[in-house]
Design brief:
The protein is mostly helical. Helices cover 65% and strands 0% of the residues. This is DUF305 domain-containing protein.
Length: 225
């Protein structure tokens, strides 16, 4: 599948995810009948913001099914987490102006696609017999580590714009939670391929965080001259 088809699918999926509750019934003051024989124009959904996309990711991660198996549950969570990064990257590619950040966004699409292959394969395997932890037990070490890893998604930093700066800011939050999630797998997981994927995620996303930090620092230095 070509890059343009992948990007189009990501943008379409992201747009559809936010259209369900935005429509409002017409009031009498605004209600107008379309001319006879002409259909009414369909409402145009506004594209999702980067902040909305990350908040939506936090909600999706809350609803991910967990069996109580360390490796499989990590794979499920990371698959959804990666999809959130891909949606953020798709917005940057479609609307961003900075060439460096657009290149980083394309790198996210490519790298996360590779990781998703490993994660998907892990979910096709037979899970271990019995639970390794109880998903509803908030005192369980695995549950507590996962909750702590994802907590920053619920306390996002200010994003006053422009879009490029917001992308660099929010991708840092995304990657920080991704690194923490991968470190939980390294601490608890048993599957060799998943642990290798987790090590790669830690390495790659920590490196990307530094790139976003350098970009934001350079932008701040430029505005103070």
């Amino acid at each position: 599948m070509s890059y343009h088809l992948v990007l189009a699918a990501l943008l379409l999926g992201t747009s559809l995810a936010f259209t369900g509750c935005n429509s409002k019934p017409d009031t009498n003051a605004h209600k107008q009948e379309a001319p006879a024989g002409q259909p009414k124009p369909a409402p145009v959904a506004a594209p999702p913001s980067l902040r909305d996309t990350l908040q939506r990711l936090a909600q999706q991660l809350d609803t991910v099914h967990r069996d109580g198996c360390w490796d499989e549950d990590f794979a499920r969570l990371m698959t959804v987490h990666h999809a959130g990064a891909q949606r953020l990257a798709a917005v940057e590619i479609a609307q961003g102006k900075d060439a460096t950040l657009r290149d980083l966004a394309q790198h996210v699409l490519n790298g996360h696609g590779r990781d998703n292959h490993v994660l998907t394969l892990a979910l096709t395997r037979q899970p271990p017999k019995g639970q390794e932890y109880r998903p509803g037990n908030t005192k369980d070490p695995f549950v507590r580590r996962i909750a702590a890893a994802l907590a920053p998604l619920r306390q996002l930093p200010p994003t006053p714009g422009p879009l490029d700066s917001d992308f660099a800011t929010l991708m840092q939050v995304h990657h920080q939670t991704g690194v923490a999630l991968a470190q939980v797998e390294l601490a608890f997981g048993k599957d060799a391929e998943l642990k290798e994927a987790a090590r790669r995620i830690v390495r790659d996303e920590q490196a990307e965080i530094k790139q976003y930090q350098r970009w934001l620092k350079a932008q701040a230095a430029g505005t103070t001259r």
